[in-house]
Fold each of these.
Amino acid sequence: MSTSTSAPVREATVADVPDILRLITELAVYEREPDAVEATVDSLTAALFPADGGPTAFCHVAEVDGPQGRRVVGMALWFLTFSTWTGRNGVWLEDLYVEPDQRGSGLGLALLRTLAQVCRERGYPRLEWTVLDWNEPSIAFYRAVGALPQDEWTTQRLTGDALAGLAEG
């Protein structure tokens, strides 16, 4: 396992978007949804690095040194939430992914720590995410850093025909 002596986590740049898409695709395979990825380099670029206005999503990447130089092996893709109870923004971690051969190297922890630092620096009281019920390695990792399940909340989702039907009235 390769590790780097310089800071392994940094904010993503537009040049990282192909790697971010690659990691999203790898995550989809890991989560047993290999055909679910509809994102493209263009759609990710528009969300993370829009030509007009501010970004709607943000990303940090983890790098290691390799034979061809530094390469992106992990990512934390996130966006802002808002809590009416606290009256402040928070961070929603949409995807945290580290390549299998780099797991256990501390990169996942470094990515999470970076987002916790973003929260502290900006006064955001929450860092939240979901995890698949069957993903025991990730659940154990999250418990180890002090994350607590919010079992009293169930995520709801509208997509496809149900979303269109509600929109149409």
Amino acid sequence: MLKRFILFIINNLFPSFLFKTRKKKIVADSFLGKPFSGNAKYIIERLLELDTSLDIVWLSLDKNIEVPKGVRVVKYNSLQSVYEMATAKIWIDDFRKKYFPKKKKEQYYFQTWHGFITLKHVEKDIISSLSKEYLKEAIRDGKNSDYMVSGSKTSTGLYKSSFWFDGEVLEFGTPRMDAIIMPNKHVAETVDHKLGLNKDDNVFLYAPTFRDDDKESVSIYDINFKQIKLILERKFGGHWKILLKLHPNISDLEKRLINQNNSLIAASNYEDIQELILRSKFVMTDYSSLMFDAMMADKNVLLYTPDLATYQSNRGFYFKMEDLPFPLFKTEQDLQLGIEYFDYNSYFSSTRKFINDLGIHEDGHAAERTAKYILKKMYE
């Protein structure tokens, strides 16, 4: 009840008109207060290269996060965060905002969303499954967004049809995909340092999404990774490490899964999934759109979907799972055999055709284009 009252006050009565908009001020966040990450991270890095005089605010649940010089950290969903938005010329986000003051005419909101290619039905396409609270947030956020950023013809069409959005879709590419297309040569060293890996370790990343119906059960994610590790070492040689990166909605399950399987290394709190993908040779997920990020990084993607029929019935997909260019397995036995007989040449041929068919236009310069456009709007 108190939260609803606070929400009403901020969204309807906060006197944003009393606060002057500062032309060179930008407020950004990612996925409901995550650390410095997502599309906004890469946009801000380019903005700092282009103009060092900007006042950039990052909204985070943790005020002690690491950010570049020139970025201030403010508590996400705090009264100060509302003030920062009320006085900023530019807003950047990749998720729906719950609390924000009335946007003024001279302010611009760049909604970058958090998917590159979307597999699961979202927004208007699952409207009957959305909570009343989220639906109100989504509609309000969509109506306030001035721009969305797209990396493919497929995404552009989705944003126009399903996001309650009447603004302009900027086909600049997906900023966070820049790290995939033109990777930093020190990424592997960064990941190794943070997770305690050796430079000669081969990495298998397991990054499943969450289930709406049972967020407390670990059974669907409990796989015999000890056996998978043995197969990887027998098939490809070398020493293999298996990273576990859970969706933020179920990250609290990580400790239980690792306690049940000591072959796993905890990576759910690692802030940038792009870096984990780049460090990996294999990426396994189920229904997460990160499969497409890994595809663009030329990683070997596997789909493990033991609950496919149920999940598809509950959520729905924009693609037939069988038409995706990734090997798909519904049992652990099939998964183990799939790794044993993985054929890279066939896999590579399938992924290239899929990329061409979707009209993907990522070239590693999306963040730069977006940053330059933001600066243009800032000085209008």
Amino acid sequence: MATSTQAGALGPRVVLMSSNGTGMGHLTRLLAYAQGLHGCDVRFLSMSGAAPVVARLGHRYEYLPSRQATGMRSSSWRRLFLDRLVEYLRRTRPDVVVFDGTHPYAGMEVAREVVPGSAWVWSRRALWQPGRNVDQLAKESWFDLVLEPGDLAEGNDSGATVGRDAYRVRPVTLVGTADLQPREQARRELGLPAAGPLALVSLGAGNINDTSGDLGAAVTALRSLGVGACVTRAAIAEQADDALAVHHVDDFPVSRRFSAFDLAVSAAGYNSFHENLRLGLPSLFVPNTQTLLDDQQARVDHAVREGWALGAVDLTPRGAEPLLARLLDDGARMARGAQAADPGNGAGDAAALLRRLAGLDDVAAGEGGT
């Protein structure tokens, strides 16, 4: 635990550090923690190209380019990473450093020895694919504590983190039900039609005119059912010629406007899965089976078995249409079942822990962790 306050009148300093990742998952989880860090000087250090969104939400951040972003050789980048991290720690003198990722970078253990005085926390989601990433568990010794955000599908977890020593909190999301906008307002602010059924489609990269892919199959099936397809901008960034075929959604966090949609077709990454279920959005989950570590198939299998959502491994227009029709008819009931099983948001529990590590007296923020 940090024993001194480095940030003076601003309160103890907490640095939230995200790995590069392939999306917004790590940053979103850290942003959820940040909401409860009252009385702290919160700063972000991120290797994600999406880091500027942090500034739009009112937080200070610095960008530390990943190896992929620099194109450098691994050995050269590791030296750059260590030099930049040491310089940053010496300059900011944090009381607590929180790293969110599944692969702590070599050099972090050196940096914390070179610049002592901080408590280090590894924020590490579970549900790893069986047998994967086992070697990373030895890096637990680099940290004072492992913080594990819960997973609604934890009963289906057979990955390497099961049974490891960790401070576990309830599933973490940035947005809760109290943050949802009314349907009319949400549609207006997203620039969507006021009337008619709409579906949020968030499946990653793809071509909406290629029905052999998940994205194209979903859009085609929705059209057949008379449902407007609202595709996240990231998924169609390279398809400007398709602008009139779908509604574009470019917003963060879009989950605060989930009431605009009648259903969703979504991948099953940690944030999408938990936001959709927690916020009551009837969902057809299509797991991204190309992820190297995140066991999205296990999440989908659990949700389907519990009756919370529908799932499909590969979509075709013919196969997607009956699933989406069923979701239109019965999705609201499924969504209510998922919400009834939700233990609540663990973001406040995690923030209370970090406040204690920073030397602040805890304020009631939830039920805590185990």
Amino acid sequence: MTDQTPPRSIIPDVVDLIPALRAYARSLSRNQSDADDLVQETLLKAIANVDKFQPGTRLRAWLFTILRNTFYTRIRVSARERTGAADCVSGEMSVQPSQEWTVRGRELMAAIDRLPPHYREILILVVMLGESYEEAARICDCAIGTVKSRVSRARQLVMNDLEGTEEA
């Protein structure tokens, strides 16, 4: 029965992390439905491999790593598949927002979406989800200096992009 103790003891913590997992999945996939599927697959993998979780380590980083690896595995698999057109009108809004803050928020997210994936991922982890540089380095399997430089470069690219849209 002691084999059952660790899974049950981390379940409340896993449930508390679902919103952060969804936010990270949304930033990677850029599609709400795909993000939900990614979180579900991550949770299934985490439950199936809970015995591999080391008590005393950060559950959040462990789950984010599973999510990130699952996402990149999906990309490799989907590169071999041919799907329908990505520019389907069903995904477009029918009414444009009228509030300035909504427009600016969409411009910001569009600028973030235009970042190269390695910059976007680090920016989302550190700036939007509040991960430390150390945790982001562990999740992305890179050096802390790399994380810091990518965050700095990503911020600069977003600011330059937004300045360009203001002038247009």
